Amino acid sequence: MCTRKILTMRKSFLFLDTVANKVDAKGRVSLPADYRAIVKELSTEIVCYRSLTAPCIEGCTEDLLEKLATDIENSTDFFSETQDDLTNLIFGDAKRFSFDSTGRIMLTEKLLKHADITDTAVFVGKGRKFQIWSEANWAAEEARLREKIKLNRPSLKEESK
Amino acid sequence: MCTRKILTMRKSFLFLDTVANKVDAKGRVSLPADYRAIVKELSTEIVCYRSLTAPCIEGCTEDLLEKLATDIENSTDFFSETQDDLTNLIFGDAKRFSFDSTGRIMLTEKLLKHADITDTAVFVGKGRKFQIWSEANWAAEEARLREKIKLNRPSLKEESK
DNA sequence: TGGTATAACATGGTATTTTATGGGAATCAA
DNA sequence: TTGATTCCCATAAAATACCATGTTATACCA
Questions:
Q1: Interhelix angle for A2-9 vs A33-42, to 10°?
Q2: pTM of the model as a whole
Q3: What is the pLDDT along chain A (161 residues), one digit of tens a residue?
Q4: Which listed residue, A22, A127, A157, B81, has the most CB atoms within 10 A of its CB?
């Protein structure tokens, strides 16, 4: 409630945190309350699509896709042909999801299957976007990321010593 | 109180000092008054996440993360793999914390555990960020830091002698 | 300068509100 | 009808706002 008020005044629209919510028999999942606050504030909608690179669902506000589309329109050189292809894939796959009065969305079979999600959906904030993972896949992914950071930033390793 | 006035007039928004506050059974801790003044002044919120390099919690204003999100957006392309990994780690772990009318935030189990905090949280200012340590871990860390400085800057050793 | 009144703060406790989640009725399409 | 989707209600747990108190720090005055 406090959050909502502050979001009303400011412009901070970051998807944060990691939340695990249950997927019930009907396929319903609660969108984390913080995420809902963002959607309401921006008067936009949630859009989800299969991640192109990982076994997870990716989501963002429709606003962001709008921005992406505009960027592509306006600059021919900024986006490579490959990226253009990727964009087509995303737009083709993306679907709009609105939540009911209790804050739940209903993910499709296609998405759930791509992410190996059966009974629990893990929402992972990514700033302007977020991802939805199965518990097992996310555990593996997080481990991979933390390992990678250690290797790529020896200076950090040094500091922690 | 004097602090607040100065903050109002100047643009000095540094987290300073070291303050030890109690963590109650529910995980509530008073955010140091000076820190709260900064948050209010900037009309932002506090965001905390597990330090990547040390057994402590790290915190900053949401503004700072906003800036980071924008920088990442602009510096790399929409589909960059590095961007993907980085954003997952940072934003996925970060959580927004708003304090109640008495100035307390409620830290999560995950964060407290990472920092070995049970009953006392030590807030350590770091300028734009701050850290939260357990008493024991902070004592060790401070000793380590002071020792390191001595070795790296013999001139200081000379003076203190 | 010293002493006292005042305000701010940390902290324990309690009440109220959100939120996640299960289940049922209503709506709609095949 | 059947199967699925949307809407609404109920509830338990968790998060949040609010109240009260002792203590400390600050401001004020003699």
A1: 30
A2: 0.88
A3: 333 333 334 456 999 999 999 999 999 999 999 999 999 999 999 999 999 999 999 999 999 998 888 877 776 655 567 777 888 889 999 999 999 999 999 999 999 999 999 999 999 999 999 999 999 999 999 999 999 888 876 544 344 43
A4: A127
Contact assessment for residue B129 and residue B63, using Cβ atoms and an 8 Å cutoff:
no
Site of tokens 């004097």: B2
CA of A100 to C1' of D7 (A): 8
Asked if residue A47 lies in contact with residue A60, where contact means CB atoms within 8 angstroms, the answer is yes
User: To the nearest whole angstrom, how far is the Cα of A109 from the nearest Cα of chain B?
Assistant: 25
Instruction: State the best of B43, B74, B91 to mutate against chain A, taking most chain A CBs within 10 Å.
Output: B91
Enter the tokens of residue B114: 């990472």
A55 Cβ nearer than 7 Å to chain C strand? no
Beta strands (DSSP E) in A31-98 are: 46-50, 57-61, 95-97
- Is the minimum distance from the CB of A29 to strand C below 7 Å? yes
For residue B41, the tally of other CB atoms under 10 A from its CB is 15
Verify whether the Cβ–Cβ distance A149 to B79 is below 8 Å.
Answer: no
Q: What is the 3-state secondary structure (H, E, C) of B53-122?
A: CCCCEEEEEHHHHHHHHHHHHHHCCCCCHHHHHHHHHHHHHCEEECCCCCCEEECCHHHHHHCCCCCEEE
Cα distances from A156 to residues A161, B51, B57, B130, in angstroms, run 9, 11, 16, 17
Tokens for B139, please give them: 């004592």
Tokens 């790290």, residue located: B58
Q: Give the CA-to-C1' distance from A58 to C27 in angstroms.
A: 31
Q: Does A124 contact B at CB distance below 8 Å? A: yes
Using a CB–CB cutoff of 8 Å, tell me whether A159 touches chain B. yes
